[in-house]
């Protein structure tokens, strides 16, 4: 009898073990300080499925420097941002930008290929702002991007319109929301992916990431008395909405940054929360300084139904990974994207209507030249 029971026990243990090996075991990574249970679980199959998205293209080959090579301003007529590059580095970067942003269309996405100096395509003017933005990120936001830095590829990944950009979300029209109650004040609509289909206010991005003047992200008031507190239930709900968005953008849960028994407490938070704090300030800067200028340069079909322009969020770079491109460093291969822009680009055209087709670059009246060499025009 005992034997039969033992055999039954062993076979059930074997069965359970078999079940366990058939299931995928998530990898547990300790994020916060030891003993704080700030553990992240990663599903190996999810990580593997995202490898292609997070693999960086081969760097463009580097030619040996040629001391005889002409200076940039001797060859090109309308370079306003990349003035500090050698002709070789300039051409190499143009190749790379084509691969990163418009691999199908190539140079012609930004250029009239018969006149590379012309600014007649809006994409070229936008790309100038983007070059300055990228240099600014790598220079002034090392608190967030470290030495890893970013290139155009971090956001674009071979697409002219990067995934993970966002617009103001006006929500559903009042009648659809509820005839009876009137407006829902931008909440209680559990179909909005930004906040994980929760009933929370569904546009925390406009509230918190749009501008340098966005309100502080708080649930707990810092002052006790009514009138001096400055927080509200709505602000708290918006905060939770934003936190869900941040977690989804990075593919992590709250414990990646917080000790959940004391969300607000910085001493008990992980170092990554500090990186995220700088990231929030960086995104506000990018949207205020660059995307607000790029918006009016875009054609109408790039804008939202309400005419709002696209903006950068955490997902624009991270795309579901705690470090974009799983932490691969592309910047060392393109150091020219890591230096400060020498010639600030104030931005020639400021609206789409002033770009397309209207201002093909007119070269200054030609100087008397020696007889033309074949292949130049
Ligand atoms: C994503 C947009 C983009 C793509 C794609 C692109 N370029 Fe450019 N190109 C620019 C911008 C922006 C400038 C101006 C840079 C500046 O003002 O500092 C420029 C300037 C140039 C110039 C200087 C022209 C002059 O006389 O002022 C040349 C040459 C050039 N590009 C060649 C190329 C070639 C060749 C390709 C394809 C391999 C290419 N570009 C792909 C955006 C692009
Ligand atoms: C932080 C993310 C980010 C980085 C880095 C970035 N971009 Fe962009 N880019 C955007 C966003 C967001 C838009 C607006 C997309 C839209 O039109 O919806 C955009 C738009 C553009 C467009 C206009 C595309 C179109 O068809 O309307 C061009 C061209 C472009 N970027 C080139 C570049 C180049 C070149 C670099 C690198 C020097 C670069 N970008 C770096 C986020 C980024
Ligand atoms: C990638 C890091 C990160 C993740 C993941 C994250 N948070 Fe946060 N959280 C922050 C940062 C940074 C702040 C402070 C923002 C600021 O001050 O600008 C914050 C603030 C908060 C606050 C406000 C605290 C106060 O001072 O009142 C709450 C509550 C909060 N988070 C909850 C959550 C919840 C719930 C989740 C999961 C759904 C989450 N967080 C996920 C980084 C993160
Ligand atoms: C311009 C691209 C870009 C944007 C936008 C961006 N990040 Fe990052 N982030 C990076 C890069 C690059 C790194 C890797 C830095 C490194 O290797 O040291 C990083 C790292 C982090 C880390 C540290 C991860 C770790 O494992 O240590 C956190 C947390 C983070 N980002 C949060 C955010 C949040 C929250 C937002 C939105 C408010 C955001 N990021 C927006 C580029 C970006």
Strand and helix map with partners:
Elements lengths: L1 H21 L4 E4 L8 E4 L1 H6 L22 H4 L11 H15 L20 H19 L1 H4 L6 H5 L17 H4 L26 H5 L24 H18 L20 H24 L19 H5 L59
Antiparallel strand pairs: 1-2
How does this structure look, described?
Helices cover 34% and strands 2% of the residues. Helix 5 runs antiparallel to helix 11. Strand 1 and strand 2 form a beta hairpin. The protein has a two-stranded antiparallel ribbon with strand order 1-2. It is globular and about 100 Å long. The model has no long low-confidence stretch (mean pLDDT 85). It has 377 residues and is mainly alpha-helical. Bound molecules: heme C (HEC) (4 copies). The site of one heme C (HEC) has 24 residues, from helix 4, helix 5, helix 7 and helix 12.
Notable characteristics:
377 residues; mainly alpha; two-stranded antiparallel sheet; 12 helices; 2 strands; 2% strand; globular; binds heme C
């Amino acid at each position: 009898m005992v034997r039969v029971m033992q055999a039954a026990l062993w076979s059930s243990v074997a069965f359970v073990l078999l079940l366990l090996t058939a299931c995928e075991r998530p990898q547990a990574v300790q994020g916060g300080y030891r003993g704080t249970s700030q553990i992240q679980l990663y599903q190996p199959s999810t990580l593997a499925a995202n490898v292609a998205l997070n693999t960086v293209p081969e760097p463009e080959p580097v030619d040996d420097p040629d001391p005889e090579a002409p200076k940039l301003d001797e060859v090109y007529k309308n370079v306003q941002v990349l003035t500090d590059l050698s002709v070789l580095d300039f051409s190499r970067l143009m190749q790379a930008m084509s691969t990163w942003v418009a691999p199908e269309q190539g140079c012609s996405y930004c250029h009239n290929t018969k006149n590379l100096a012309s600014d007649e395509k809006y994409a070229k003017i936008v790309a100038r702002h983007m070059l300055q933005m990228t240099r600014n990120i790598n220079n002034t936001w090392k608190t967030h991007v470290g030495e890893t830095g970013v290139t155009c590829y971090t956001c674009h990944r071979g697409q002219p319109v990067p995934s993970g950009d966002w617009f103001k979300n006006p929500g559903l029209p009042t009648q659809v929301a509820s005839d009876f109650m009137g407006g829902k004040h931008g909440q209680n609509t559990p179909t909005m992916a930004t906040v994980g289909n929760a009933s929370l206010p569904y546009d925390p991005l406009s509230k918190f990431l749009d501008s340098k003047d966005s309100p502080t992200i708080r649930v707990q008031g810092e002052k006790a008395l009514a009138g001096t507190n400055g927080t509200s239930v709505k602000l708290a709900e918006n905060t939770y909405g934003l936190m869900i968005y941040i977690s989804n953008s990075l593919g992590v849960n709250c414990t990646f940054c917080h000790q959940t028994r004391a969300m607000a407490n910085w001493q008990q938070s992980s170092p990554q929360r500090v990186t995220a704090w700088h990231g929030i300030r960086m995104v506000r800067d990018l949207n205020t300084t660059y995307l607000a200028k790029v918006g009016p340069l875009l054609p109408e079909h790039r804008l939202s139904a309400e005419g709002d322009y696209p903006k950068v969020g955490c997902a624009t770079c991270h795309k579901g990974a705690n470090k974009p491109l799983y932490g691969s460093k592309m910047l060392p291969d393109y150091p020219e994207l890591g230096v400060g822009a020498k010639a600030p680009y104030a931005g020639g055209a400021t609206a789409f209507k002033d770009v397309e087709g209207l201002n093909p670059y007119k070269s200054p009246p030609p100087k008397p030249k020696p007889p033309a060499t074949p292949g130049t025009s």
